[in-house]
Every structure is written in C-alpha cells, then in structure tokens.
C-alpha cells in the first residue's frame, strides 16, 4: 500500500521525509498505546510509547511471555546523553562517532519517564540512521522504545512484508521503507563504572568502540623522572577510580575502556629510573611506577596521542617546535589556569609533595573531560 492510504496497515514510504498525514497516524497510534512497526538501517523494530505501562506490557506480550529483555529508548538527538551522568564523556564520544548508526548504548540511570525501561537501573538508548524513522520520532512529544521485530530466538524481520506476515494482527501500523540497508541487529554496549561490556557485537568490534570511548594521554616534563611520571601515575589512579576499576592492575583495567597513559621528557635520556620521592608519593596512593624508565619526547610519539599535557610553557613550546605546523592541537598545559608546575628535582620530600598536590589538583579538573 502507498503512503496515501489512510486505512492501510502497511504503508510504503519512499521519501526520507514522511508526509504530514503519516506523521499524524504514527503519533496518534503511539500516543494511544498501540504498537507501530518502524524501519531502521539494521532491522525493523516494533515501537511503543515508553511512558505508557499498557503499551510496554503489550510489547512484552508480543515478544513472548517469558521475554524479560529491556527495550531500548530510540531518540532523534545525540544530546540525550546529557541525561545520563555515569561516564558521560565516554558515552558522548561514542555517540559523536557512531550516531546516527547501529550502536545501542546501555547506560546506568533511568531518566524521568523511562521507568518502564529501566527496571535494572540501566537503559538502552540509540539514535538510528534512518531518516524516515528519525523524522517520525522528532514529531513525538513523548519517548518511545523499540525492540526488534521478532520473537525471542528468531531472526529479526528486515522488510515490511515480513513484519506484516509475522505480526500484522497485533500492530496498528507498519511503516514500510523496503529492505533494511544493513540487515543485521545493532551492536549493544553496556557502559558504566566497572562495565565496558559488548552484549551484542553487531557490526562494531569492541576494539573500535574502546578506541573511540577512551583516550591516549601523555604527560611531558624535562627529564621524565619526576613531574611527568608523577602526573602519569596520579592520572592512572584517578582514572581507575572514575571508571570504577580501582582494584587489581589499574593500567590493564583502564585499557578495557580504551585509555592509555604515557609520559616523556623534552631533554630526557632513555632508561633513567623515576626519582625516589616520586615513587614514594605514588606508593602512598597505592600506585606502583617502579618499572617506569625515562623516554625522550619525539614528534612521532606525540602525534600518536589524543592529548599531551605539558608541565610548563617551555615544554609546550619545545613540543610545538618538534611537530609540523598546524599539527599541535593535542598539546596543552596540564594546569587549566595556565600556570607552570615547577621542577622539584633536588628538593626535599615536602617539595615533591607540594608538586604532587599541584599536579593532582590540575588532573582533577582535566579528568572531568576524560571520564
């Protein structure tokens, strides 16, 4: 049936922007708690009003009485990420890279109106890459959830005719845009403190998701034996705490979220150990950097990193001179206020402690953008 038929169960659409008539039908049915089939780039989904208990119950009955899997909130904008606080910077980086697209993020927290989706304290959310469906979602003033058009254990439907044959008697409307472009379910990633779990791989390997979610961070001082290894170690502990993986091998555990840390020096020799006072300050915080050996700064090492934090303006300028013109966007001072953190070398333990405090305060501010 074509889009002009007001009574058709299955309505074929060819334009990316649905007609006003179709938008009104979709809004009316969903508002009243009925179920509507919508296309996405992956598979067809069955949509229900997410803040309507009877609609959610109907969706569960359609999927099968024993199905307790949570349904995903489908949205038309990336900024819904702001409604989730846990590891928001990682979620935002993933959304900026993969939305619209075949990735469902399962995030900790239950935004108001989505209580029916978050009985476990987590909510799946996705912005699909299907312009017709996104336009229809944009026309709604209430949230909707989708689940794949299949019974548990069956393959999802990838065209409107199959949806009609399987579920036609239980649906108020099927929006049919033809076969799905990808024809495979979205990847599902659970992201929160202590969790970077690929629940369903879909089209996105977990290593690609880690590389997008995390950051490669470097710290630069002069000799890479005092300030920059102290910054690296304190950042390691801070990130492990923020990611909820403070127990065990912190470096390996933050790597599970895509984070890598390193440090180097603009005048460093290769292979010098970390200063004793620096090791003691880190050890008191449960951080072991005893295997660290100094590394000279190079253009190649710097260019591989997402951000490089310099302890002073002199280090910043030295790295800029190493890099090609216009390729220094990853460089900044560690201190957000723009101050230098002076070298404690040769000083007492108290001098190192003051230096460590300055570094820790700067890292606390910087880490708000990391995790």
Structure description:
By secondary structure, the chain is an alpha/beta fold. The protein has 2 domains: 10-205, DHBP synthase (Alpha-Beta Complex); 214-367, Rossmann fold, CATH 3.40.50.2300. The protein is built from 12 helices and 14 strands. The strands form 2 sheets. It has a 10-stranded mixed sheet with strand order 1-8-2-3-7-4-6-5-9-10, sandwiched between helices. The chain has a 4-stranded parallel sheet with strand order 12-11-13-14, sandwiched between helices. Helix 7 (227-243) packs parallel to helix 9 and helix 7 (227-243) packs across helix 12 (349-367). The two termini are 49 Å apart.
User: Which parts are unreliable, with pLDDT below 50 for 5 consecutive residues or more?
Assistant: none
Based on the structure, what is the oligomeric state of the protein chains? single chain
Given helix and strand content, the structural type is: alpha/beta
Largest sheet: 10 strands, mixed
Order of helices and strands: EHEEHEHEEHEHEEEHEHHEHHEHEH
Cα gyration radius (Å): 26 Å
Number of helical stretches of at least 4 residues: 12
State the CATH architecture of the largest domain: Alpha-Beta Complex
* Percentage of residues in helical conformation: 25-40%
Q: Indicate the overall shape.
A: elongated
Mean pLDDT: 95
* N-to-C span: 49 Å
In the CATH hierarchy, the third-tier topology of the largest domain is known as DHBP synthase
Could you state the CATH homologous superfamily of the largest domain?
DHBP synthase
Total beta strands: 14
Question: At the first level of CATH, what is the class of the largest domain?
Answer: Alpha Beta
Beta percentage is 15-25%
Return the domain count: 2
Side-by-side strand order of the widest sheet:
1-8-2-3-7-4-6-5-9-10
């Amino acid at each position: 049936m074509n889009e002009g038929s007001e009574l058709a169960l299955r309505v074929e659409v060819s334009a990316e922007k649905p007609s006003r008539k179709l938008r009104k039908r979709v809004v009316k049915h969903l508002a009243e708690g009925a179920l509507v089939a919508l296309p996405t780039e992956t598979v067809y989904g069955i949509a229900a009003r997410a803040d309507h208990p009877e609609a959610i119950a109907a969706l569960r009955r359609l999927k099968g009485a024993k199905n307790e899997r949570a349904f995903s909130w489908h949205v038309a904008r990336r900024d819904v990420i702001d409604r989730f606080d846990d590891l928001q910077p990682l979620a935002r980086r993933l959304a900026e890279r993969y939305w619209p697209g075949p990735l469902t993020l399962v995030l900790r927290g239950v935004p108001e109106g989505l209580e029916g989706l978050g009985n476990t304290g987590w909510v799946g959310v996705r912005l699909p890459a299907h312009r017709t469906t996104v336009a229809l979602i944009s026309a709604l003033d209430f949230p909707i959830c989708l689940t794949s058009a299949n019974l548990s254990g069956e393959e999802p439907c990838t065209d409107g005719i199959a949806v009609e044959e399987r579920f036609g008697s239980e649906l108020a409307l099927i929006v049919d845009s033809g076969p799905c472009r990808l024809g495979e379910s979205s990847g599902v990633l659970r992201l929160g403190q202590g969790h970077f779990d690929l629940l369903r791989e879909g089209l996105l390997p977990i290593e690609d998701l880690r590389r997008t979610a995390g950051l490669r961070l470097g710290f630069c001082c002069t000799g890479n034996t005092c300030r920059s290894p102290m910054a690296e170690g304190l950042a390691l502990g801070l990130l492990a705490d923020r990611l909820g993986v403070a127990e065990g091998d912190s470096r390996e555990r933050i790597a599970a979220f895509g984070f890598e840390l390193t440090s180097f020096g603009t005048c460093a020799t290769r292979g010098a150990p970390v200063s004793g006072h620096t090791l003691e300050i880190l050890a008191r915080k449960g951080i072991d950097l005893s295997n660290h050996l100094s590394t000279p700064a190079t253009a190649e090492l710097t260019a591989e990193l997402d951000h490089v934090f310099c302890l002073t303006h002199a280090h910043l300028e030295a790295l800029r001179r190493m890099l090609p013109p216009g390729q220094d966007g990853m460089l900044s001072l560690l201190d957000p206020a723009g101050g230098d953190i002076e070298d404690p070398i040769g000083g007492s333990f108290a001098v190192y402690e003051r230096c460590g405090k300055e570094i820790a305060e700067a890292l606390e501010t910087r880490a708000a953008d990391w995790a």
